[in-house]
Amino acid sequence: MRQIRFENVTKSFDGEEIVSGLSLEIPAGKFFALLGPSGCGKTTILRLIAGLEFVDSGRIFLGDKDITHQPIYKRRVNTVFQQYALFPHLSVFENVAYGLRIRREKEIIIRDNVFDVLKMVHLLGFENKNIKSLSGGQKQRVALARAIISQPEVLLLDEPLAALDQRLKEKLLIELIELQDVLKTTFVYVTHDQAEALTVADKMAIMNSDGRIEQIGTPKQIYEFPVSRFVANFVGNTNIISGKLLEKDGQPMVEVKGLGNVYVFIQSQKNWMILGCNLFVSVRPEKIFISKKEISGFSNHLQGRVENIIYYGRSTQYTVMLKNGKKIIVFEQNEEHFPQEVIDYDDIVNLYFQKENVVLLQE
């Protein structure tokens, strides 16, 4: 297991810079996700690791080995593509065995290895099936089996589940996590789907539309403590409110025009956090408690009118219009064992949240 390291890598196509001065470390033996909007350069980064593209400047290392100009066949790196890239005229067995046959392995080794990986991807019994007869999920499992049979040091996954329905996608995400846990191979997973990245990743990098990395961290770190408005908005749903940083009786707060003060907890002081500066606060919808009753014990209290309600089964989403015209989204879990307050359209409701759940973001 070896880490992947980018040092000031730049890559352009037709004069347009897609990757600009990228420096990044992908830890060895971890499930690493690259998350960002379409066209931000995620797939280009994968292709640079694989050797399908070469850098204009900068260097790429696999462990201590410089692979910047190394040809694809010398890299122990395999890729699983969104469109599977399987051989339709070959059986499942022969698709998976293809790489070993190229290496001229003995037949008994090929057979044993193929059956081992088919077991890992839950396809034992499918070895003689024609590729054309398989479902999308089964084809993706074949593609995975073919990629891991040669025991690569790095497995690259380029939006591998994008073509699948939601239920199958959720099932395969769990299988991918289990597979990486068994193999201990470095997985690099590219996606624009935030839920996928949060589900699979040990660590993740968020790329903005300009192809630059905004934040690197664990899913929890990125979701709970986004460093920018882009990250806060892109990873999960959030409420963004603008205001001015003030202090009252030693308590930091943000003065919001037309609403009053929102008390905040400053966990780590940034150099831009000076009294009187304009900034934004982010509050996740599930961190807000909604009620028609007056309740004590919360740092912050806003009031508004229910404008929209969406029932999701496990949760309900409320859109609340505040008196300054700002809309706030609230998620409420639907608990079976606790009778919930009935909240309807046009109800005047109170929104409560703690200062510890308010994240400050630079303007």
Mean pLDDT: 93
| Domain module count | 2
Q: Classify the beta-strand content into a percent band.
A: 25-35%
CATH topology of the largest domain: Rossmann fold
Multimeric status of the protein: single chain
**Which consecutive residue ranges, at least 5 long each, have pLDDT under 50?**
none
Helix/strand-derived category reads alpha+beta
**At CATH's second level, what is the architecture of the largest domain?**
3-Layer(aba) Sandwich
Care to count the β-strands?
Answer: 20
Which radius of gyration do the C-alpha atoms yield?
A: 25 Å
Helix content: 10-25%
Question: How would you describe this structure to a colleague?
Answer:
The protein contains 8 helices and 20 strands. Strand 11 and strand 12 form a beta hairpin. It is globular and about 75 Å long. It has 2 domains: 230 residues, Rossmann fold (3-Layer(aba) Sandwich); 123 residues, Beta Barrel (OB fold (Dihydrolipoamide Acetyltransferase, E2P)), CATH 2.40.50.100. Helix 2 crosses helix 3 and helix 2 runs parallel beside helix 4. The strands form 4 sheets. The protein has a 6-stranded mixed beta sheet, sandwiched between helices. It has a 5-stranded antiparallel beta sheet with strand order 13-12-11-14-20. The chain has a 5-stranded antiparallel beta sheet with strand order 15-19-16-17-18, with no helix packed on it. The mean pLDDT is 93. The protein is an alpha+beta fold.
